[in-house]
Design brief:
By secondary structure, this protein is mainly alpha-helical. It has three domains: about 20-135, Fumarase C, Chain B, domain 1, CATH 1.10.275.10; about 145-235 and about 250-395, Fumarase C, Chain A, domain 2 (Up-down Bundle), CATH 1.20.200.10; about 405-460, Ribonucleotide Reductase Protein R1, domain 1 (Orthogonal Bundle), CATH 1.10.40. About 60% of the residues lie in helices and about 5% in strands. The chain contains 17 helices and eight strands.
Length: about 450
């Protein structure tokens, strides 16, 4: 069955467009031109640009450049788009024209058609509201797209920070619960001096809080917008007050304290603020990956590994080994962390690949930075709720491994001297007896004195 169409025109000539589509000729060409990934540009970036369009319409109206009826129709159309009601009208592939012109014009066309229908016009007629002359007044993709992408990433930040803080709280709760459980520390995957299980988890909590703080600090750079700078950031064809008016309007619509770019040309050429945020997300992925790897090691076994903690079972672990339980949540988070590192690498390469007055890799930069933030949000929350909250300690295994650790010799040095302790180590290796058993049997220490050494070794020394 043939889909009904309507005839539209753009600067390249006539073009058939699906009759019911809110988008127009240029979007239709983009759908045909970029059949690359099958993944459209994230809706959050479309919404970020829609919020910017709303602010620009308010600014143009305030400056006397856009009639009130048109401005209100554009604003109303943007508000509807921000509800997600027309998300299906934005099908352009993520991999498209490098400045994001394809998706930007897709948005202009949808806004214009919604506004025109509200004002009694026909879909596709470009009147009384024109997608370029009215919706896009004083704007260029080169500033609108990165500004919209910044808005999208910033909108994700509260959820990400909350998720990381929730993970830190879950880890800190386990640190408190496990505070008195002595165990062997390990460096180079070899026995090291004693530590408590609580101290290990407290360090994980500290790492998570620090990751959240770094992300929060890096995100501040996204608050500077080049919106209103037009083609290369000089503000050509706009009034001097236009940029400030856009920011003023945005601040009335958003909780973020946006500011006008100090150098509009710099803001158009360089995507370094995205690289900075992406790097902070990558660093958080490094830390979450290490934490989950540590949890997997500590839970390994349960009988032939370290087995010092138990992770909550979330699914059967094998199709052929009954009763096997795998660290599935940790493994999923590991994969997220590796993917985030890959996204950051692509963002870093793209941010460094601009030429002259423009970076032409902005859809990738915006989409990948946003995806990394979304993935980390979900990973941190899942790790906290489905793994960390249910972790239990095997106190007996912790103590058993501690007693067998050759590194306990370090604790005995100040009390017994290096040479005597060296003989104890040799005897322990030869007989299989622990250092504690030998020291007590030879009456070099009492059980109380030995325990006091362990407690002193794990006491904070700040």
């Amino acid at each position: 069955m043939t889909t009904p169409t309507r005839l539209e025109h753009d600067s390249l000539g006539p073009r058939q467009v699906p009759a019911n589509a809110l988008y127009g000729a240029q979007t239709s060409r983009s759908i045909e031109n970029f059949p690359l990934s099958g993944t459209p540009l994230p809706r959050e970036i479309i919404h970020g640009m829609a919020l910017l369009k709303l602010a620009a319409a308010k600014a143009n109206a305030a400056l006397g450049l856009l009639p009130g009826t048109k401005a209100q129709a554009i604003i109303a159309a943007c508000r509807v788009i921000l509800t997600g009601a027309h998300d299906a009208e934005f099908p352009v592939d993520l991999f498209q024209a490098g400045s994001g012109t394809s998706s930007h014009m897709n948005l202009n066309e949808v806004i214009a058609n919604l506004a025109n229908e509200a004002l009694g016009g026909q879909r596709g007629a470009k009147a009384p509201v024109h997608p370029n002359d009215d919706v896009n007044m004083g704007q260029s993709t080169n500033n609108s797209f990165p500004s919209g992408a910044k808005i999208a990433v910033l909108n994700q930040m509260p959820a990400l920070i909350d998720a990381l803080n929730a993970l830190a709280q879950a880890l800190q709760a386990k640190a408190t619960e496990f505070a008195a459980i002595l165990k062997a520390g390990r460096t180079h995957l070899q026995d090291a001096v004693p530590i408590t299980l609580g101290q290990e988890f407290a360090a994980y909590a500290s790492a998570t809080r620090a990751a959240a703080a770094r992300i929060r600090q890096a995100a501040n750079e996204l608050l500077e917008l080049g919106a209103g700078g037009n083609a290369i950031g000089t503000g050509i064809n706009t009034k001097p007050a236009f940029r400030a008016e856009i920011i003023r309007a945005l601040q009335g619509e958003s909780p973020h304290p946006f500011r006008v770019a100090a150098d509009g040309i710099h803001a158009t050429q360089f995507m370094s603020s995205f690289a900075h945020v992406s790097a902070a997300l990558r660093n958080a992925a490094f830390d979450l990956n290490q934490i989950t790897n540590n949890l997997r090691l500590l839970a390994s076994g349960p009988n032939t590994g370290l087995g010092e903690i138990r992770l909550p079972p979330v699914e059967p672990g094998s199709s052929i080994m009954p009763g096997k339980i795998n660290p599935s949540i940790c493994e999923a988070v590991n994969m997220v962390c590796l993917h985030v590192q890959g996204l950051d690498h692509a963002v870093a390469l793209a941010c460094g690949a601009g030429q002259l007055e423009l970076n032409t890799h902005m859809p990738l930069i915006g989409a990948h930075t946003l995806q990394a933030a979304q993935l980390l949000t979900n990973a941190a929350r899942t790790l906290a709720e489905k793994c960390v909250a249910g972790i239990t300690a095997d106190t007996a295994a912790c103590r058993r491994n501690l007693e067998r650790s050759a590194a306990l010799a370090t604790l005995l040095n100040p009390r017994l001297g290096y040479d005597r302790v060296a003989k104890l180590v040799q005897e322990s290796l030869a007989t299989g007896q622990t250092l504690k058993e030998l020291a007590l049997a030879q009456k070099l220490l009492t059980a109380e004195e030995y325990e006091a050494l362990l407690q002193a070794a794990t006491a904070p020394n700040l």
